[in-house]
Design goal:
single chain, 410 residues, alpha/beta, Ribosomal Protein S5, domain 2, 2 domains, seven-stranded mixed beta sheet, 11 helices, elongated, binds adenosine-5'-triphosphate, translocase
């Protein structure tokens, strides 16, 4: 066990921030600390680094109480990357990184300067700051400064790295680079990282485990899938969120829904949206619709070119309950295609079931049929029950196919 927090309470004089926290961090883990502003994340990091003493409870580092370590011993084991301050610094980049070696120097005369130099160079290389190593810190951007302090922390060669929002000044590519690099160090150098994150999606992607703090208490500890859940995030952050799956990883991702996001409530997809221009059949929707196609196509679209070379006998359309269905036939191949517009909200599961339902209905009505179809929903208004939808689609599609057959062009 790298670190153990046993029933820790405390904070500042007259202000108890943390209440009865217990958890442990294993060697080699990337352990994330999450929580709203003021929930006690920085206070907890200060206690772990020995800057603040708990009022109650105990923190053990490698099974030994933290208070038995001298400041220098702690600095040899732990490096802290604080939130970057914006004050002016009169040091160069290289001097700042070199300060990371301080805890390892013995006496007044530095005994192992070659070794120190090598470590400082390595730390600068790893964080990509060597190209501006002779510049003064105050001449750097916030993100560059963040990387310099990370280099300083690495030069300390710690066993535990404590990070307070390491990515908050970094652009997208440096965020990814820093975290990918941290993971490589974790695996190669047996480092353990404890880091505060504000970005829940990044924490979900990179952390082995997460601690979600709420008002100084443990709300939940677990892996990303367990902690980044709609219910717990909404309860702790007191806001509405929507969850979605990451397209390539089994990691939950969260998206915000602005209060002001109002779709045009009266926007309805019906016969007014249909246009036939020189044999080309279009649907022009007043709002973007979320679509899934039998060919795997998905996304948000508002203009749909359905078919070319059609005469008015080749297609049918109509509204069935709140669903607008268009069916058209390809006169050469005798295939039937369908566009189904749902005026309502279709969940992810609803889409899957609707796609399956339409495939089944087509097979039932037409036998082997390779015709294509799309399902597009406004995601506006009431949630649609996939079982009800199935019945409505069956009746609507059947009626339209019969009617195209009757029109005599086949
Ligand atoms: N030096 C201090 N003296 C007294 N109270 C403090 C001190 N530092 C922080 N606090 C209080 O302790 C509480 C927790 O602060 P802390 O900085 O740990 O929160 P945090 O979760 O890191 O917040 P943020 O997300 O805003 O960085 C806050 O209410 C804060 O006002």
């Amino acid at each position: 066990m790298m670190l153990q927090i046993n029933r820790v309470s405390g904070g500042y004089p007259g202000r108890q921030v943390l209440k009865d926290l217990s958890f442990s961090v294993e060697k080699g883990e990337l352990f994330g600390i999450l929580g709203p502003n003021g929930s006690g994340k920085t206070t907890l990091l200060k206690m772990i680094s020995g800057l603040l003493q708990p009022e109650q409870g105990e923190i053990l580092l490698q099974n030994k109480p933290l208070r038995y370590f001298s400041a220098k011993q702690l600095a040899q084991k732990m490096a802290v990357l604080p939130q970057v301050q914006s004050e002016a610094f009169a040091y160069t980049v290289k001097e700042t990184v070199a300060l990371g070696r301080y805890a390892h120097q013995k006496g007044l005369f530095q005994t192992n300067r070659e070794e120190d130099k090598k470590i400082i160079e390595e730390a600068m290389m790893a964080t990509g700051v060597q190209s501006f190593q002779n510049q003064l810190l105050q001449t750097l951007s916030g993100g560059e400064r963040q990387r310099v302090f990370l280099a300083q922390a690495l030069a300390q060669k710690p066993e535990i790295l404590l990070l307070d929002e390491p990515t908050n000044h970094l652009d997208l590519s440096f965020q990814k680079e820093l975290l990918d690099q941290l993971i490589r160090w974790l695996r190669e150098k047996e480092l353990t990282v404890i880091s505060i994150f504000h970005d829940l999606n990044i924490a979900s992607l990179y952390c082995d485990r997460l601690l979600l703090l709420n008002k100084g208490e443990v709300h939940m500890i677990g892996n990303g899938e367990e902690v980044i859940q709609k219910q717990s995030i909404e309860a702790v952050y007191q806001t509405k969120v929507e969850m979605q799956d990451h397209p390539k990883m089994p990691k939950p991702q969260m998206v915000l829904l602005p209060d002001e996001w109002r779709r045009e409530d009266r926007a309805v997809i019906d016969e007014k949206c249909i246009q036939l221009k020189e044999g080309t059949l279009f649907i022009q929707s007043p709002i973007p619709l979320k679509i899934r196609g039998s060919d795997g196509r998905s996304g948000w679209e508002s203009q749909f070119k359905l078919a070319e070379g059609l005469s008015s006998k080749d297609f049918q359309y109509g509204t069935y309950e709140k669903n607008f269905i268009v069916t058209w036939a390809d006169s050469d191949k005798h295939l039937f295609h369908h566009a189904i517009f749902v005026n309502g909200f279709l969940s992810n599961e609803g889409y899957v079931r609707a796609v399956m339902a339409v495939s089944e209905i087509k097979t039932l009505l037409l036998g082997e049929n390779e015709g294509q179809f799309i399902i597009a929903a406004s995601q506006n208004g009431q949630s649609v029950d996939p079982s009800d939808l199935r019945v409505i689609l069956h009746n609507g599609i059947k009626r339209q196919i019969d009617s195209i057959h009757r029109s005599g062009s086949f």
